[in-house]
Every structure is written in C-alpha cells, then in structure tokens.
Design a protein that fits this description.
about 230 residues; eight-stranded mixed β-sheet; globular; Rossmann fold; binds S-adenosylmethionine; alpha/beta
Amino acid sequence: MKESRDPLPVPDLPLEVDLIAHSYGAAVRARGATSLGVGWSTAEVQMLRLSVLCDLLDAADPAAPVTVHDLGCGWGALWGLLKERSAPLISHYTGYDITPDMIQTARRTYPGDGLRARFVVSATAEEPADYGFVSGTYNFSDGTADSIWEPYVEESLRHFLSQCRKGMAFNLLHQRRRTERPMYYANPDRWQRWLEAEVADRGGTVWRREDYLEDDFTLFVRFPDPREPI
Ligand SMILES: C[S@@+](CC[C@H](N)C(=O)[O-])C[C@H]1O[C@@H](n2cnc3c(N)ncnc32)[C@H](O)[C@@H]1O
C-alpha cells in the first residue's frame, strides 16, 4: 500500500488501473451514490445487470444463509439488492473496490449495516465467501490494448474465483455493441472457454446469459458441494 492524502489506503495497482481508479473517484465525487457515479448510463441498466448476476443464487438452498463478496462494488448497489433477500439470507457481504471514494460513499450509504456488510479498499478478495459477484469492474479500460487488458482481467478473476466456494458470476460489455469509447468489449465465447478451462479441476458448471441487454453478457459458474460426489 502506498501513502496518500486520502484517509483510506490506496492499493498498489498497475498504472492503467491506477488512472482508472482516479476517474471513478472523480465520477463518484461529482455524482454520488447514483448510476452515473459508477459510470452506468441509467439506474435501470445498472440494476438489471445486478439482478441478472443474482440468478446465481436461484439454485442455492433457500434455507441456508450464505456469504457473498463483490469485486468492484462501487458504492454498494448490489448490497442494496441483497440485503432485502431472505431466501437465501445473506449473512455477510463484503464489497471490495480500488477507489477509496467509492468505499467511503458505500459506507455513508449504508451506515447502519456494519454487522452484515463491510466495504474494503482492495483490488482482490481478502478472504473466501460462498458466492462472488463482479459487475462492470473491467468495462472501463481507458483505451488499454486488449493484449494488456485481457491478461490483467484473467489474473484478477482467477484470484477472485479461488476465493469463491460455491459460485461466481461476472459481466462484461458485449463486442456486438462496440463503440469508440475507451471501454473493453469482450467476445463471450472467448471468456466462456476461458472460464470453463479455469474451473474444470473444481468440477464447475459454466453457463451464460446474453439476452437481457444488447451491450452486455454474464458468465456464471457453480461449484459442486464438496461434501457430495461430482
Ligand atoms: C462500472 S463500476 C460498477 C460498480 C458496481 N459494481 C455497480 O454495478 O454499481 C466499476 C467499479 O469497479 C471498480 N474497479 C475497477 N477495477 C477494479 C479492480 N481491479 N478491483 C476492484 N475494483 C475495481 C471501480 O473503482 C468502480 O467502482
């Protein structure tokens, strides 16, 4: 960690990602806990992406509380959805984000939730949870070449996967709606193949959705219960 004038620590990041964190910091300072504050055009598309990610919980035992973490949590919109859920109950949520202003805004947004939710400045999940979610985290690449961005995304997801016991879901911008904006537009087949290879040794089942927004897709993986035979 390097020192900063910010009261929260700033993680050591590759240069591209450091600049990206500065841009997100400016957005949330200007727009607060809104969709624009995390770079989504509207609250509807932000929430639709998050609710699609939550499909992952549909097959969970509704009676067994689960722990969840969220990489690139922004100001915690996902926690706003999950905290109301009762089947399964989310017993504990951790949101991680590289942008200290996001984490400060998240803590201000949910001041009374400290027993069930915490928000941490970090580029990685620091401990395991049952389910992991990643929404929009790798979209803004600031024009970084795919040859640099894709290995970075793989490394980030690989570590996150290792901290997810039961399943994980992430979304990316779909290449069918590529624009001139400095975003990463992904090929869903490429990422599905990557994910399948990554989780094969854990017996993970992979599926995807690309039917909810033209410019987005979501990949899911569920792991078998370690107590049951694969
Ligand atoms: C498009 S915003 C989405 C925020 C939130 N997931 C939502 O949907 O409301 C992307 C967020 O990811 C964070 N971020 C980007 N790269 C990250 C990384 N490698 N690790 C953790 N957070 C990251 C940014 O700071 C930003 O808050």
